[in-house]
Design brief:
This protein has helices at about 50-55, 75-90, 95-110, 185-200, 250-260, 310-325; strands at about 20-25, 30, 35, 55-60, 60-65, 70-75, 125-130, 145-155, 165-170, 205-210, 220, 225-230, 235-240, 265, 275-285, 290-295, 300-305, 335-340. By secondary structure, it is of the alpha+beta class. It folds into two domains: about 10-155, D-amino Acid Aminotransferase, Chain A, domain 1, CATH 3.30.470; about 165-325, D-amino Acid Aminotransferase, subunit A, domain 2 (D-amino Acid Aminotransferase, Chain A, domain 2, Alpha-Beta Barrel), CATH 3.20.10. The strands form two sheets. Strands 1, 2, 3, 4, 5, 6, 7, 8 and 18 form a nine-stranded antiparallel sheet that branches. Strands 9, 10, 11, 12, 13, 14, 15, 16 and 17 form a nine-stranded mixed sheet that branches. β1 and β2 form a beta hairpin. α2 (about 75-90) crosses α3 and α5 (about 250-260) packs across α6. The protein is globular. The termini are close together. Bound molecules: pyridoxal-5'-phosphate (PLP). Pyridoxal-5'-phosphate binds next to α5.
Length: about 350
């Protein structure tokens, strides 16, 4: 049962203490046994490869308490597969998909009282982390790794329903190069975008949109979320690029759009095409969809929609995904992974 000493309505998106996290160590070529650890601090060698050379990757996913009381994790297999690919790209021992899902189940079970009650709009955010913890000063993969999965209850991102934001394109900074690390979930991508993000925020734009690093002519994605646009005929368009992170939310929204009978296009999206969209959104696990009502690039300001209204397509997509997550709409594709408490 959910704890009664937490004000669930007041929860934001941030760290809070829970019962424990789960930890595994890889050495001598194999993953060790899971440990449930209460202490949120970690001791590691000062020569650890994650500290010096960024041998690090992470994931983000959510567990929901559904209407009928079941606790489910949304598509953990997709996060497991993505972390597998990211680990391979960073020459880290991949966490087997079954071990990843088992870790998520153990973690949720051990922290069940922190899964927010149904109806509060909250969820338990799960944060998997894989880091090189073996000392490595000559540049090479470390010989020891630690896989951690931690969790924290988070509130509904937007208390009074989804709210449109303004976005900016800053041509002086790129997020990810073609064939670089843009398509894998490494912390370095966030470090790379933080400067532009802080500048955008300071100048009044909550999110920044990136164009392709090579030519600055195609739309890629926001710093921490994918880009999607809706055409006047209801077509769902999202960029196809080797430097965009394959978002599980985008994948789910594309499927929902197709299920609703909308056309779905995943292809290069020229910057010039933005004007043709009647609705634009950023999408990711934290918020599902954030409508973008205006996009600024230098002197050019593209107005997509009214600042205070959410387009019907985005609203429908948001309601559909949330409906599946909270168990009020049928889970036709088996996305909700039940955790037996
Ligand atoms: C995590 C992430 C996203 C969103 O992915 P989801 O799986 O939908 O949460 C989008 N872009 C980047 C760069 C990311 O790191």
């Amino acid at each position: 049962m959910p704890r009664t000493d937490i004000d669930w309505a007041k929860l934001g998106f941030g760290f809070s203490d829970v019962n424990c996290h789960i930890r595994y160590v890889w050495k001598d070529g194999a993953w060790g046994e899971p440990q449930m650890v209460k202490d949120p601090y970690i001791t590691m060698h000062i020569g650890a490869s994650c500290l010096h050379y960024g041998q690090e990757c992470f994931e983000g996913m959510k567990a929901f308490r559904q209407k009928d009381g079941k606790v489910v994790i949304f598509r953990p297999d997709e996060n497991a597969k993505r972390m597998y690919r990211t680990a391979q790209r960073c020459v880290m021992p991949p966490v087997p998909v079954e071990m990843f899902i088992d870790a998520a189940e153990r973690l949720v079970r051990a922290n069940e009282e922190f899964v927010p009650p149904y109806g509060t709009g909250g969820s338990l955010y799960l944060r998997p982390l894989l880091i090189g913890t073996g000392p490595q000063i000559g540049v090479a993969p470390a010989k020891e790794y630690t896989f951690i999965m931690m969790c924290m209850p988070v509130g509904a991102y937007y208390k009074g329903g989804i709210k449109p934001v303004r976005a900016v394109i800053l041509d002086n900074w790129d997020r990810a190069a073609p064939h670089g690390m843009g398509d894998v979930k490494v912390g370095g991508n966030y470090a790379a975008s933080l400067f532009a993000h802080e500048k955008a925020k300071h100048d009044g734009w909550p999110v920044e949109l990136y164009l392709d690093a090579k030519t600055h002519t195609y739309v890629e994605e926001f710093s921490t979320s994918n880009f999607l646009g809706i055409k006047a005929d209801g077509t769902y368009v999202t960029p196809d690029s080797c430097s965009v992170l394959p978002s599980v939310t985008n994948m789910s929204l594309k499927q929902c759009a197709a299920d609703l009978g909308w056309k779905v296009e995943c292809r290069p999206v020229p910057y010039e095409e933005i004007k043709e969209f009647v609705e634009v959104a950023a999408c990711g696990t934290a918020v599902v969809v954030t409508p973008v009502w205006e996009i600024t690039r230098g002197e050019e300001v593209i107005k997509i929609s009214e600042p205070d209204s959410v387009g019907p397509h985005l609203q429908k997509l948001y309601d559909t995904v949330q409906g599946i997550q909270y168990g009020v709409l049928p889970d036709a594709h088996g996305w909700c992974h039940e955790v037996k408490i």
